[in-house]
Amino acid sequence: xxxxxxxxxxxxxxxxxxxxxxxxxxxxxxxxxxxxxxxxxxxxxxxxxxxxxxxxxxxxxxxxxxxxxxxxxxxxxxx
Length: 79
Known about the structure:
Layout: E1 2-6, H1 15-19, E2 23-26, E3 31-34, E4 38-41, E5 44-48, H2 54-63, E6 69-73, E7 76-77
Antiparallel strand pairs: 1-5, 1-6, 2-3, 4-5, 6-7
Protein name: Ferredoxin
Pfam families: Fer4_15 (PF13459)
InterPro entries: Fe-S_cluster_ET (IPR051269)
């Protein structure tokens, strides 16, 4: 399972931070950061979801008010 985060779309509500500790507040920039992720495009970050964290990742993606977070199971988008 993979999470994809578009940081440019983020508006800094930090609801993802409340749902999953892989997201961290970056108060200097007013956006969340996805810890240990890789930037795959300009401002777009991806991270393989660790075993056991799938539900937290799904909650983080669903909580985002601007849909900046997508969750994939293989090639299929789950959220």
